[in-house]
């Protein structure tokens, strides 16, 4: 599922309007260029588009809607396959951009925390982080065909990893998500995706 320029432009403008700031010139194009990098198969404009589509009907749940929206745009802004600090680099880019647009330090700090929550190293502590992480993990509850495509895309991103190593590490990652009870932190996503996510993950782990 691709996203055309109008889809992205509308969502981008909405985020900055919610933040109460002017839209920075050229920043959206820089971000979209990152999401279009050739080494990305899953963490691409398709993923960003799907995330924005999942967030829109749940945005009313956010305490700081604009911050969740802008954090979503930045959450995979930097994605280097062999790097360990992609989220940290993405978060710092977000912080610099928000500060340059005149946003207050507390806003920048919250957005940094939101982006860092998408490392999935721990269960999110706050409502906004839960919402953002649920959006990022919505793919786990996708229709079987899309979930299968997602698994293929992840494998293509890590094509340089030997098959047996990839399968072992991938299975461990999927088991971690399956062990979460629940997988989704918000009732909105639990009601819509929890059952499908558990089915997809169990089948993938098998």
UniProtKB/TrEMBL annotation:
Keywords: Receptor. PANTHER family: HD PHOSPHOHYDROLASE FAMILY PROTEIN-RELATED (PTHR21174:SF0), PTHR21174. This is N-methyl-D-aspartate receptor NMDAR2C subunit. It comes from Roseateles paludis.
């Amino acid at each position: 599922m691709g996203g055309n320029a109008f889809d992205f432009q509308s969502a981008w403008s909405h985020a900055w309007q919610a933040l109460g700031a002017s839209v920075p010139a050229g920043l959206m194009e820089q971000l979209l260029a990152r999401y279009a990098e050739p080494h990305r198969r899953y963490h691409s404009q398709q993923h960003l588009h799907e995330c924005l589509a999942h967030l829109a009907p749940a945005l009313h749940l956010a305490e700081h809607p604009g911050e969740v929206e802008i954090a979503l745009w930045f959450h995979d802004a930097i994605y280097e396959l062999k790097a360990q600090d992609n989220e940290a680099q993405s978060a710092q880019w977000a912080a610099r951009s928000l500060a340059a647009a005149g946003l207050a330090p507390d806003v920048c700090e919250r957005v940094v925390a939101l982006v860092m929550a998408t490392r999935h190293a721990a269960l999110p502590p706050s409502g906004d982080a839960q919402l953002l992480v649920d959006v990022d993990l919505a793919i786990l509850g996708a229709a079987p065909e899309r979930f299968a495509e997602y698994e293929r895309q992840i494998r293509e991103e890590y094509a340089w990893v030997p098959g047996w190593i990839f399968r072992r590490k991938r299975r461990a990652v999927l088991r971690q998500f399956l062990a979460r009870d629940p997988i989704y932190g918000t009732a909105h996503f639990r009601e819509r995706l929890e059952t499908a996510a558990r089915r997809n993950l169990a089948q993938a782990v098998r």
